[in-house]
Here is the input.
Amino acid sequence: MRPLIAAAVAVAATLPLAAVAAERPPMPTGSVAPGKCTWEWVEFSGVGVWAETCDLNGVYQVVARTDPPQLVLMVDGEPGDTVVQAFDKPADADISAILPALRKFGYIPDDDECVFQPASDATLQMIGPAPRTLAFFEIMPTGSRLAAFEATPEDEVPEPPCGDYGWSTHGTRFFQTDTAHPEKVVYINIGQDGTMIDPRTVTLE
Here is the structure.
């Protein structure tokens, strides 16, 4: 994927993270590239977020897909990373209930060494202020996967030890829950160079 000129997460750094609610949050006022981008409200399967469409030596656009339901960053019409995706779980179950689905679809390795842990301080700083109803998690390596990651030479960029949806040294990806919607878990990818969304505006109906 081509590098972006700025991280979209910085666009509205002064805005609080939106509580998961039916009301659409206000459109962000900044831009990754003023004059080259427009904000659009993008929705899929009851999930919405403000995203930018930009002409930056190529057209960057966040597009809804139905199989599976998710938002994908497109560059010149070619699909790139998934930036937002929702997963169902029993309302009385904790977040680990979606691990089998993540393994089934190949988003994380098919073993028990990648588990949910509360989001790190570094990730929480990237996310910013949030309502108390929201909680944030990352998929982290344990056991032999953690040992292999820790053995990576310091001058190498390691592959994400828990796959595309797991924690990584290059890029920020996390999962969000809300006590107002205990039956849902939302995956949010703000990447390393930006994924054209304002994660503070992710909203569930």
Remarks:
- The chain has one domain: 17-25+36-204.
